[in-house]
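User: Could you go from structure to sequence for me? I need the amino acid at each position, not a summary. Structure tokens:
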């Protein structure tokens, strides 16, 4: 597996874990859990959508690194436009479920642009360090001190939560559940933010944990396999 694919897979595994923790927490929250059976398939598709978009960004970072030209604002805007085709595939698949989503780009664009920019420069930094580092974990350590890594992970997860929150406010639920939509959006963002804090802390600790004390199942490189 090449480095770009490994980093993209690690990112996908992180998003899947983030979604799992969020869904588990939402199941315990009333009245949010009343709408959850309608939303869980959409949340799963959303993870696939976001992982696809992030892989696009990571590949772009790798191409910039190979060319010797750091990515700039024009690259971020181009990537934003390219993500819209991924959105269209997502919306086509959501149409199979008894919910609907309208993506209001005037709400989504500022947050998504920030997230693309953060991931683009972070991937560029990590892949650059990986040129001389022995493995992904070493590259992550070379790229960020632990507190900075934790903050970077949290900031990217928070941007993911903000975009999901914007989408959740435009979800069309079955008529009986429509009054819950605003409460659902508020509850989901609160849960996602709390999960982001803990997940960023957990992942940064895994990166900096001593190898001898770290079970194989929890090693960073195992997330990329």
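Assistant: Here is the amino acid at each position, in order:
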């Amino acid at each position: 597996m090449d480095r770009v694919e490994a980093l993209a897979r690690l990112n996908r595994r992180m998003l899947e874990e983030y979604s799992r923790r969020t869904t588990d927490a939402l199941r315990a929250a009333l009245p949010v859990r009343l709408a959850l059976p309608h939303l869980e398939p959409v949340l799963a598709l959303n993870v696939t959508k976001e992982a696809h978009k992030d892989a696009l960004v990571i590949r772009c970072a790798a191409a910039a690194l190979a060319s010797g030209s750091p990515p700039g604002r024009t690259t971020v805007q181009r990537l934003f436009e390219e993500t819209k085709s991924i959105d269209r595939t997502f919306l086509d698949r959501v149409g199979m479920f008894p919910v609907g989503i309208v993506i209001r780009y005037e709400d989504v664009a500022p947050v998504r642009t920030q997230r693309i920019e953060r991931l683009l420069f972070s991937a560029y930094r990590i892949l650059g360090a990986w040129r001389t580092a022995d493995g992904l974990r070493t590259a992550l350590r070379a790229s960020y001190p632990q507190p900075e890594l934790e903050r970077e992970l949290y900031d990217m997860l928070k941007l993911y939560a903000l975009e999901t929150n914007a989408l959740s406010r435009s979800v069309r639920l079955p008529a009986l559940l429509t009054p819950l939509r605003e409460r659902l959006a508020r509850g989901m963002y609160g849960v996602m933010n709390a999960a982001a804090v803990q997940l960023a802390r957990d992942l940064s600790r895994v990166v900096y944990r001593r190898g001898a004390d770290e079970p194989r199942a929890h090693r960073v490189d195992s997330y990329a396999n």
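One structural detail worth keeping in mind: The chain has one domain: 3-223.
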